[in-house]
Design goal:
23% of the residues lie in helices and 11% in strands. Helix 1 runs parallel beside helix 2.
Length: 93
């Protein structure tokens, strides 16, 4: 089993309704949804599409949000570094 972690200590856990993508979006996306490109990127009226038109599926919408909001240094709005890491758990054979 692979567990997704963040450099800040957040761990995606089975049975918890917060994914690593949810965590990263929360840490990098400002409340007003305005990204560095000057456009507002929030889920609009059409299901699974950003107001800028990107998306079409949950995976593409999540990838879009992370690409427009996550800075190169991975420092979130809380001032901490957030980036995914993978930890393999379970029996080693």
């Amino acid at each position: 089993m692979t567990v997704q972690n963040c450099a800040c200590g957040f761990t995606e856990a089975e049975g918890i309704d917060e994914t690593i993508g949810d965590h990263l979006f929360e840490m990098f996306a400002p409340d007003n949804g305005k990204a560095a490109d000057g456009l507002v990127h929030l889920e609009g009226e059409a299901n699974l599409f950003c107001m800028c038109g990107a998306g079409g599926s949950a995976e593409r919408l999540e990838a879009h949000f992370l690409s427009v909001f996550m800075p190169d240094d991975h420092i979130g709005l809380d001032g901490a570094k957030h980036e995914t890491t993978a930890v393999t758990t379970g029996c080693a054979r």
